[in-house]
Write a structure and sequence with these properties.
Elements lengths: L12 E3 L2 H9 L6 E4 L16 E5 L5 H6 L4 E5 H4 L3 H7 L2 E4 L6 H11 L3 H26 L5 E6 L4 E4 L4 H9 L5 H4 L8 E4 L11 E6 L1 H11 L3 H4 L2 H4 L3 E3 L2 H6 L3 H15 L2
Parallel strand pairs: 1-2, 1-4, 2-3, 4-5, 6-9, 9-10
Antiparallel strand pairs: 6-7, 7-8
Helix pairs in contact: 1-5, 5-6, 6-7, 6-13
């Protein structure tokens, strides 16, 4: 969005996307304010956030509430809040990353720089990538081959599978583990995710299936379809290699702490 001058060590930080709150807390900075995703609360996987003031939603930040917090840095996303940049910049130095998800590592490093913790961010990212490689090697060695990992999310009105450019897909890719052919999205313009109909649910099979749901309506879809015959017919389900995971972590965390927790799940559920 241009250039801005920020304090060397900002102390009153407001974050306006889910990756930003993960980043700040991963680097030891508790934001004074944070936007939430829709009607959901602030992410629970990051612990007690009762001292963090909610300042609207990701797509509709509450500018007056942000101003009252007297921040010295605002972290946001051009993808979500471009229209608010000028007003936010009048409140405090504002740094936006451009996209979400696919560029999560680059975003993490830029946000770390803005927080005055660039070196710590680089070290955390390198530690995560090294661990991902080690876990993937251990899993492939124990299995005698690299198992294919299926990632499924039940939305309120459709079923998604996730490809190599979605956040969780990138994390699985960093381990070197395989993906089912459908979920490689080879040749697709958008390789973040695809959709299947309820009648095609059995096409999301893999050696292991990790699944979650978005919101109460998504949970209703999950309950309905995972109790049906197509779900039960899949080889991963028959083998007991299907696992429910936290939607906040696998889908909306989009940060180094969430990525580490995805690695935890892979290690817990796949390694003998």
């Amino acid at each position: 969005m241009g250039s801005t001058d920020v304090p060397v060590e900002p102390e009153r930080v407001v974050v306006l996307d889910t990756d930003k709150i993960d980043t700040a807390l991963s680097l030891g900075v508790t934001p004074v304010g944070a936007a939430r995703a829709g009607e959901t609360e602030l992410p629970t996987y990051l612990g007690d956030l009762s001292d963090v003031t909610v300042v609207g939603t990701l797509t509709d930040p509450d500018l007056e509430a942000i101003d009252r917090l007297d921040p010295d840095l605002i972290l946001g996303s051009k993808f979500r809040q471009e229209e608010f940049y000028d007003e936010l910049s009048e409140i405090a130095p504002t740094v936006f990353t451009e996209n979400v998800g696919i560029t999560w590592k680059e975003n993490f490093l830029l946000d770390g720089e803005a927080l005055g913790k660039g070196e710590e961010a680089q070290e955390l990212l390198e530690e995560y990538e090294s661990r991902a490689t080690d876990i993937g090697f251990s899993i492939a060695t124990a299995a005698g081959a690299s198992p294919e990992i299926s990632i499924v999310r039940f939305m309120p009105d459709h079923i998604r599978f996730y490809g190599p450019d979605g956040f969780s897909g990138i994390v699985v890719g960093d381990t070197g583990l395989g993906r089912p052919e459908l979920q490689r999205l080879e040749g697709a313009d958008d390789r973040r995710f695809g959709e299947v109909s309820p009648e095609e649910l059995d096409t999301v099979d893999g050696d292991f299936i990790f699944y979650c749901a978005y919101g109460p309506d998504g949970e209703s879809q999950l309950t309905e379809y995972t109790s049906g015959p197509l779900w039960e017919s899949m080889s991963a389900v028959e083998a007991g290699q299907v696992h429910a995971v936290d939607d906040e972590v696998w889908m909306t965390g989009i940060g180094v702490t969430a990525a580490g927790m995805i690695l935890d799940d892979l290690e817990t559920y796949i390694l003998p």
